[in-house]
């Protein structure tokens, strides 16, 4: 009998990590190794090293990270840069030390310059100034990419990086103040529907363009990139440019997304845009031609993805009543 591949998913309770676990649980050839933050503190170098020494891990999906919205990034910049750097350094170094040959690091589209040419290609990395509000987090994610590249160059490892666009879906954060735009609006439209409200106010003019990817597509892409043969993967990357964008390659206005959200939730009132509130960047779209060339494309459209997410929200809304 062939032994199962032991795969460690770091951050398995988060939105992306849990989606990767759902993907891998369907595989008969994989044995998942999962540890909660109470069982394994990834910021502890000694603890992470002891874990890898004991567990004989074959592959790692590094989805663990400290994440938050604009407010949290502004108030706790030291926490965001330190904790993310610590997690990445500990996991990648211990994986190498204990002879894990393949690892997938999950980053963020915020690695790209604030004024990067649209759509943002992988080559835009380090070509301009970052968005100030989340610079510490972005710097940590860039360091994660460079850690993977450096272990590949010096030790011949096969450590890969994927950079997702804006994600949403099951296990998202639906906090009324600290969540991203899709979960925040979904909760707002839902509560307005229950209250019989005449309107829902959306911050900004509604004109900025944004790209959204359902987290199950992100998980599918992550597994796909991880399992590409080394020759196929390396032929599609360049030296010192080993990360790959993951997204739909399509975007819509915030107004279009809000209109679709209202339809999915069943809110029949008016949608009002408060143009006195900031819009943010006019457009943030990923160039995903590299991933398409590797043979992967997204499957879940925005309306279908919002419907899936809303069904999950309805089934789990007790945890959001805060």
TrEMBL record:
Role of this protein: Catalyzes the two-step NADP-dependent conversion of GDP-4-dehydro-6-deoxy-D-mannose to GDP-fucose, involving an epimerase and a reductase reaction.
Residues flagged as site, Important for catalytic activity: 108, 110
Catalysed reactions, semicolon-separated: GDP-beta-L-fucose + NADP(+) = GDP-4-dehydro-alpha-D-rhamnose + NADPH + H(+)
Binding annotation for NADP(+): 11-17, 106-109, 141, 164-167, 180
Family membership: Belongs to the NAD(P)-dependent epimerase/dehydratase family. Fucose synthase subfamily.
Superkingdom of source: Bacteria
Active site residues according to the UniProt entry: 137
UniProt: substrate binding residues: 188, 203, 210, 279
Domain NAD-dependent epimerase/dehydratase, residue spans: 7-230
Record protein name field: GDP-L-fucose synthase
Keywords tagged on the record: Isomerase, Multifunctional enzyme, NADP, Oxidoreductase
InterPro entries the UniProt entry points to: Epimerase_deHydtase, GDP_fucose/colitose_synth, NAD(P)-bd_dom_sf
Pathway: Nucleotide-sugar biosynthesis; GDP-L-fucose biosynthesis via de novo pathway; GDP-L-fucose from GDP-alpha-D-mannose: step 2/2
Pfam families reported for this sequence: Epimerase
SUPFAM superfamilies in UniProt: NAD(P)-binding Rossmann-fold domains (SSF51735)
EC number: 1.1.1.271
PANTHER family assigned: GDP-L-FUCOSE SYNTHASE
Enzyme class: oxidoreductase
């Amino acid at each position: 009998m062939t032994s199962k591949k032991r795969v460690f998913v770091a951050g398995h309770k988060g939105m992306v990590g849990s989606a990767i676990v759902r993907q891998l649980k369907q595989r008969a050839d994989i044995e998942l190794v999962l540890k909660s933050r109470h069982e394994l503190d990834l910021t502890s170098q000694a603890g992470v090293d002891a874990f890898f020494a004991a567990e004989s891990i074959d592959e790692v999906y590094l989805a663990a990270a400290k994440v938050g919205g604009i407010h949290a990034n502004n108030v706790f910049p030291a926490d965001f840069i330190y904790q993310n750097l610590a997690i990445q350094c500990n996991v990648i170094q211990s994986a190498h030390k204990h002879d894990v040959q393949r690892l997938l690091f999950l980053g963020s589209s915020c690695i790209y310059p604030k004024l990067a040419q649209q759509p943002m290609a992988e080559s835009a990395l380090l070509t301009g100034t970052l968005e100030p509000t989340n610079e510490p987090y972005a710097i940590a994610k860039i360091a994660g990419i460079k850690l993977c590249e450096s272990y590949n160059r010096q030790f011949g490892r096969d450590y890969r990086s994927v950079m997702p666009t804006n994600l949403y879906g099951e296990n998202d954060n639906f906090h009324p103040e600290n969540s991203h735009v899709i979960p925040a609006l979904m909760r707002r439209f839902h509560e307005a529907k229950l209250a019989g409200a005449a309107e829902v106010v959306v911050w900004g003019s509604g004109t900025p363009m944004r790209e959204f990817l359902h987290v199950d597509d992100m998980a599918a892409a992550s597994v796909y990139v991880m399992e590409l043969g080394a020759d196929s993967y390396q032929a599609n990357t360049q030296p010192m440019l080993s990360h790959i964008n993951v997204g739909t390659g399509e975007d819509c206005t915030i107004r279009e997304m809000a209109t679709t959200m209202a339809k999915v939730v069943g809110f029949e009132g008016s949608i009002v845009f408060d143009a006195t509130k900031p819009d943010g960047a006019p457009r943030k779209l990923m160039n995903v031609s590299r991933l398409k060339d590797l043979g992967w494309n997204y499957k879940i459209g925005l309306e279908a993805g919002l419907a899936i997410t809303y069904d999950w929200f309805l089934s789990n809304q007790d945890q959001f009543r805060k």
